[in-house]
Amino acid sequence: MPAPIVRKTRQKKTPEKVSEEMPAADPVQAVVATPQKEVPQGAAVPRESMLPKTMQPLENIGEEIIRAEGVIKAFDIGTQMVLVLKGVSFTVTRGDFAVLFGSSGCGKSTLLHILLGLEPPTKGTVTFLGENIYDGRTEDDRAQFRKHHIGMVYQQSNWVKSLSVLENVAFPLMLLGHDKTTSLEKAYETLKLMKMENWANYHPMELSGGQQQRVSVARAIITDPEVLVADEPTGNLDYEAGQNLMYLLNDLNNMGKTIIMVTHDLEYIRYSKTALNMRDGRIEGVYRGDDKAALESKLTYKKADLSVLEKK
Fold first, then answer.
1. 60-301 fold
2. What DSSP assignment string belongs to 191-235?
3. Helices 165-175 & 209-221, crossing angle to 10 degrees?
4. CA–CA separation, 46 vs 246, rounded Å?
5. Measured distance CA(162)–CA(126) in Å, rounded
6. Partner of 301 for a Cys bridge, out of 35, 63, 96, 267, CB 3.0 to 4.6 A?
7. Could you tell me the residue ranges of all domains in the chain?
8. pLDDT tens-digit profile of 266-278?
9. Please, which contacts does 76-85 make with residues 24 or more away whose CB atoms are closer than 8 Å?
10. Which are the contacts of 216, defined by CB distance < 8 A and separation ≥ 6?
């Protein structure tokens, strides 16, 4: 039996203080004996890929992985029926980096919930890996499907506060039935990819916002899901931390990871391979290649000025 993880008693730190100090080396030596590589605390993520060069891209790049067809969603509010999604159709292929953007209230969150199997459509179909995720499936079926095939990065990270950073990252593996020792070892290796192994024995709330999101990405990819979904992941970050997170997501995509990201920050469209403009419950435009480059030249970054896309 491995020795239990021993957390050192320390004075409570705010995220700002954490960014000024280095923790003790090798904080999880009871789990992994490999010496820690020191990383300057609070330093910006280098632009060079954070991922090891030995990682190989996923196979079947370009294969259709998600298809939404004629998705309509209506909610009964009092005596009225409110139509939120109005016949949404699009596809996501393996290896894509799809960014769904639009103003608040356009239906982005509702569409994302439907794609994740959290909210059934009123009409239309959603297929994931060739399977209709609503036809003949229970909520428990869809929950199991998400655990195996989808990794999530939220604007709020939703930590298990009683667990350390390492244990939070390992938690999805343990939910899938992996033993604790194996889960902790893989969690540690995944944290190393994020340059966050030196914080393994801290509690998540002791980290800065940018550090928490890097740990959140580690938690999302530890099960090697087919799709990584990021819902406004930079919403609570400052500009530099937001850019560093986007560099990380871009590196993962370059390794073949399929990413769907929802944002209202138009600057991040430049990281996408496919940009989907959503307005008033509809997909108004799908942009790739030269079309996406032309779109980027029209947009006013950081001001979320979508008026340039309105039909005359």
1. Rossmann fold (3.40.50)
2. HHHTT-GGGTTS-GGGS-HHHHHHHHHHHHHTT--SEEEEESTTT
3. 20
4. 12
5. 36
6. 267
7. 60-301
8. 889 999 999 999 9
9. 83/281, 84/110, 84/281, 85/110, 85/111, 85/114, 85/121, 85/281, 85/282
10. 153, 154, 157, 233
Q: Average pLDDT in the 283-303 region?
A: 81
Say which amino acid occupies 84.
Answer: V
Q: Which helix (H) or strand (E) holds 248?
A: helix 239-254
Strand partners, 131: 128
For residue 286, how many other CB atoms are within 10 A of its CB?
A: 15
The structure tokens 């893989």 sit at 186
pLDDT digits (tens, 9 = 90+) for 93-143: 999 999 999 988 899 999 999 999 999 999 999 999 999 999 999 999 999
By C-alpha distance, which of 159, 279, 274, 139 is closest to 218?
159
Adjacent-strand bridge partners of 259: 97, 228
Residues 6 or more apart whose CB falls under 8 angstroms from that of 297 comprise none
Long-range contacts of 28-33 (CB under 8 A, 24+ apart): 28/166, 28/184, 28/188, 28/200, 28/201, 30/2, 30/3, 30/4, 30/5, 30/6, 31/2, 31/5, 31/166, 31/181, 31/184, 31/185, 31/188, 32/184, 32/185, 32/188, 32/189
φ and ψ at residue 205, rounded to 5 degrees: -70, -5
DSSP 284: E
pTM: 0.78
| Rg (the chain; Cα; Å) | 20
Q: Which residue has the tokens 């390492």?
A: 166
Secondary element (H or E) of residue 173: helix 165-175
- Could you tell me whether strands 258-263 and 227-231 are parallel, antiparallel, or unpaired per DSSP bridges? parallel
SS3 call for 290: helix
Whole-angstrom distance, CA of residue 234 vs CA of residue 214:
11
Q: Can you tell me whether residue 133 is helix, strand or coil?
A: coil
